[in-house]
Amino acid sequence: MNYEAKYITEDIKLSRYEDTFFKSDIMFEHHMLIWFISGETKIVQADATYVFKKGDIFLIPRNQLATIINYPKDGEPHKTVVMHLSIQKLRDFYAKQDIKPKALESQKIHSFNNHPLLESCLASLIPYFDMEELPNDIAHLKITEAITILRTIDKDIDHVLANFEEPGKIDLAGYMEKNFMFNLPLERFSYLTGRSLTTFKRDFSKTFDTTPQRWLTRKRLELAHYQFAEKRKKPIDVCFETGFENLSHFSAAFKKRFGYAPTDLLNKLNTNN
Predict the structure, then answer these.
(1) How many other C-beta atoms are found inside a 10 Å radius of the C-beta of residue 51?
(2) 22: how many CB neighbours lie within 10 A of its CB?
(3) pLDDT digit string (tens) for 38-50?
(4) d(CA 268, CA 273)
(5) Where are the alpha helices (DSSP H) in the chain?
(6) Confidence of residue 58 (pLDDT cuts 50, 70, 90)
(7) Cα dihedral angle (18, 19, 23, 29), rounded to 10 degrees?
(8) pLDDT tens digit string along 178-226?
(9) What is the DSSP pairing of strand 78-85 with strand 110-111?
(10) Model-level pTM?
């Protein structure tokens, strides 16, 4: 992967890479405001899939699990401006506001459809990427400007940005059944379910009567089988959307579990139709 990232502060970067695609499973520790200069991204969450392309602007809330698949597009590299809206920056901003955010049952990705104010704010950062660093006072102003614009164009965004609560202890079975397809360290799953790693493993064993890794592998393979049988998806897409990192490893695990390879299943299904 030919990847390049230019940071002008720890919270603002220009990301660029030229390759067939890049895939990662991520839990976002900070809210991320992203402007697409070129390329395409597919974001797969437990209950929704999004596709973003050149010109799109969107906000990904923190503590969300997602599979990110980035592609170059139309001969152009995958290139984005990314602004991290950290908890500390948001605390500083909202300290001057009288806001009482309401708890949200779920956090969705917010799309701003090429909004001219946001695009102008983020595009104004481009010249600074040719400098060694961005002065702290300018960086602070740019982040403050972005937050102010978000609040102007989305009246509900305060309930996202001004909510500083950490994950509390939640129902383990329900959470894992919803999010098992994300290939993250167990430490991340334990944090998001409000547990220490030791407590997470103990509760998991009591709940599912097996180890997390065995359960996760089985669930991911069952989902993969469904994606083939019901949706006729390509092996490469199913591999990356069900928590596997390598196609050959995925195919071997699938064959071991079901007795036939993904391509054999697809060939059989296509023959029968």
Answers:
(1) 12
(2) 16
(3) 999 999 888 889 9
(4) 9
(5) 87-94, 116-123, 136-153, 158-161, 172-179, 186-192, 197-208, 212-231, 235-241, 247-258, 262-272
(6) very high
(7) -10
(8) 999 999 899 999 999 999 999 999 999 999 999 999 999 999 999 999 9
(9) unpaired
(10) 0.81
Per-residue pLDDT band at 133 (split at 50, 70, 90): low
Locate 271 and state its tokens: 């023959």
Q: What is the DSSP letter of 131?
A: S
Q: How far apart are CA 205 and CA 195, in angstroms?
A: 14
Q: Are 217 and 245 in contact (CB under 8 A)?
A: no
Q: State both tokens at 248.
A: 């050959």
Asked if residue 213 lies in contact with residue 241, where contact means CB atoms within 8 angstroms, the answer is: no
Q: Which helix (H) or strand (E) holds 38?
A: strand 31-38
Burial class (CB in 10 A: 0-12, 13-18, 19+), 238: buried
b/e per residue 64-99 (b: at least 16 CB within 10 A):
bbbbbbbbbeeeebbbbbbbbbbeebbeebbeeeee
